[in-house]
Amino acid sequence: MSSPLPRLLCLFLALVVFAGTTPSPAIAADELERGGGGGVRQREFDYFALALQWPGTFCQRTRYCCSSNACCRGSNSPAIFTIHGLWPDYNDGTWPACCTKSRFDPKEISTLNSALEQYWPSLSCGSPSSCSGGKGSFWAHEWEKHGTCSSPVVNNEYDYFLTTLNVYFKYNVTQVLNEAGYVPSNTEKYPLGGIISAIENAFHISPLIVCSKGSVEELRLCFYKDFTPRDCAIKPDAKIDMVTKKGSCPKYVSLPESIGRDGLKSQVSNDAAL
Q: What residues are labeled active site?
């Protein structure tokens, strides 16, 4: 179950809430050349999707452990929705990627490490690909692939991670579902419609949910560029089907508990963070 957010962290975040989200003047045309777009210019994004992961589902796939995998923290493994990323998307269902050559610098977000480790941890031992074709950390992947496409709303690495944390805390999906009776369980199955309704009642928007083998794997909330909530539907006739991706969710879904994996063999797995 979720626990109250640390008051000091909330106070700190409140002082700088959306510090980096004020739109700035249009960026230079050459900055719109997207590093991952094969040389094709990518237009400015239309909206943000806050992608959240359900650790209990992801951690079921963990076969080997490593220090960077939050699934391997035993009893301290996360039991709340954690952040996957804040993704700039287009209304037509596509998205920009690798928009500048800005490389991830861990020093830029060192003051946020404690919050990121708790609320934005990697749930894999794999090293996801970077925009330059190499391998890197989960945070590096999210910044280089998605964060660099957040201009002109968010223009630097620190503000990307801070803004994402602020949005995550403000729209606390775990708390909303817990209060509605949807808590982690390895035995219960919950009506998908009930989960959707709980979120709609709390935030007045419809999310998008991705499932794996009958369990909630990911939940996305969508926002306009000023972070006003909006439905994740990309076209009017998608309203009914939009709450699940590619029909992946049944009518009753699970929110499995995270099972401590610290007893597994310490070895890098082939799993890769998305």
A: 84, 142, 146
- What pLDDT is recorded for position 40? 44
Amino acid identity of residue 85, one-letter, is G
**Sign of the torsion angle spanned by Cα atoms 8, 143, 127, 208:** positive
Any alpha helices (H) in the chain, and if so which ranges? 7-15, 55-59, 113-119, 138-145, 157-170, 173-179, 192-203
Distance CA 199, CA 176 (A): 7
Residue type at 133?
Answer: G
| Cα angle 68, 74, 76; round to 5 | 85
CA distances from 226 to 46, 167, 210 (A): 11, 11, 25
For CA atoms 86, 199, 176, 195, give the dihedral sign: negative
- Say what angle helices 157-170 and 7-15 make with each other, to 10 degrees: 120
Return left, alpha or beta for 204; rule: phi > 0 is left, psi -120 to 50 is alpha, else beta: left
274 band by pLDDT with thresholds 50, 70 and 90: very low
pLDDT digits (tens, 9 = 90+) for 78-136: 999 999 999 999 999 899 999 998 999 999 999 999 999 999 999 999 889 889 888 88
Q: What is the C-alpha separation between 125 and 137, in angstroms, rounded?
A: 10
Tell me the chain's radius of gyration from C-alpha atoms: 18
Task: Among 16-20, 44-48, 102-106, 215-219, name the one with the lowest average pLDDT.
Answer: 16-20
- Nearest Cα to 86, choosing from 139, 44, 128, 35? 139
CA distance 121 to 88: 20
Q: Is 238 exposed, middle or buried (0-12, 13-18, 19+ CB in 10 A)?
A: middle
